[in-house]
From TrEMBL:
Gene3D superfamilies: 3.30.230.10, GHMP kinase, C-terminal domain. Residues 70-148 form the GHMP kinase N-terminal domain. It comes from Streptantibioticus parmotrematis. Pfam families: GHMP_kinases_C, GHMP_kinases_N. NCBIfam families: ispE, PRK03188.1. This is 4-diphosphocytidyl-2-C-methyl-D-erythritol kinase. Belongs to the GHMP kinase family. IspE subfamily.
Amino acid sequence: MTAAPVTVRVPAKVNVQLAVGGLRPDGFHDLANVFLAVGLYDEITATPSDRLRITVSGPDAHQVPLDESNLAARAALALAARHGVEPRVHLHIAKDIPVAGGMAGGSADGAGALLACDTLWETGATRDELLAICAELGSDVPFSLVGGAALGRGRGELLEPLETGGVLHWVFAVADGGLSTPAVYRECDRLREAAGTGSSAADVPEPAPSGDLLRALRTGDPGALAAVLANDLQPAAVSLRPSLTETLRAGSEGGALAALVSGSGPTCAFLAKDPEAAEGVAEALLRSATCRAVRVTSGPVPGATVLR
Ligand code: C5P
């Protein structure tokens, strides 16, 4: 065990393709989930303590649970149990990723806490063990550890790294209030039932990654990528939060190459041609007053990284 605090930086994600299969008997959906890590970060600092304690700072701190429902706490408990260590750690989360926004903020904290505790306690877990614990914590948590760009199969936890050809410029419109991921998946099922297509794994075609999209990522061509960005959860997120239509329109009119809901939302993501175009989209979104905050960033960026 080291006595010095350990800080880990973990990025947010956007899904450039989220193809959702039918509802499985275990309550999850099979996915073809193309993740891209982007440069908005939470920082998790682990310090020795007399007991497991979570604190959070940042503008959305009041929305983050401090009990064992927090993925950071669950990560520490899972690692401690496997290695016979007492989970005596203070985890401080400096939160910059929007909460319940569809950008994997909670997953980032899980992956970050896991890596921070592994470093602090010198448990020496292998990469595969860390990935297995991440997968137990949640479907998006393994990607927060890995970062870059990856295709997630299964419920999103089975990752295959993807090659990317350049920096992509993004603008994110942060909504007032979050959306619950299970509620958005339920709404997706409800809309499929209402459309008469059915929602079970037998009714919905197996989700598959788009060849055009993987090619566009490889070449890093934002125009080509914009033409094929796709999120099967978008109709459900918009159904639960109809005002997102205005946000998506405002960013498109502001010059975005493409607009889509990020993951289960309600954060909206806008792909821009270059940094100048991204600033133009951000200004248009701010003028439109259709969102609470606007963030400009780029990706891909690396996954969870120990800073000190
Ligand atoms: O894995 P995670 O805990 O993040 O998932 C939260 C909820 O999102 C699940 O309980 C489920 O309702 C929904 N989900 C899903 N299919 C996935 C991932 C998540 O239905 N592939």
